[in-house]
Each structure stands twice: as C-alpha cells, then as structure tokens.
Amino acid sequence: MAEHKHGSMDIKEHEKTFEGFIRFSIWVGGISIGILIFMALANA
C-alpha cells in the first residue's frame, strides 16, 4: 500500500460539487419562502 501524504489529494471536483449543492439549496430555500409568502397573501 502506498504511503499517504496529508493534503496531496486534488479536491477541485469536490469543491465544485459542494458549491453547486449550496447554490441549489439557496435557490430551493428562496423559492420555498416565496411560495409561502404568496400563499399567505392569497389567503388574506
């Protein structure tokens, strides 16, 4: 088994995936809040 060197792994793909996940989560949260506000105003 090869010797592991801490901090030598390329994580660019991991960082791009995580950034996409965060962006998607923010969009879903914003749309959900918008829908809830619309529902509250429509029933007022």
Automatic annotation (TrEMBL):
Sorted UniProt keywords: Membrane, Transmembrane, Transmembrane helix
Signal peptide residue numbers: none
Segments forming domain Cytochrome c oxidase subunit IV bacterial aa3 type: 4-43
InterPro entries: Cyt-C_aa3_sf (IPR036596), Cyt_c_oxidase_su4_bac-aa3 (IPR012422)
SUPFAM superfamilies linked to this entry: Bacterial aa3 type cytochrome c oxidase subunit IV
UniProt keyword Membrane present: yes
Domain of life: Bacteria
Transmembrane segments: 21-42
Cell inner membrane found in the keyword field: no
A Pfam family of this chain: COX4_pro_2
Listed name of the protein: Aa3-type cytochrome c oxidase subunit IV
Species name: Albidovulum marisflavi
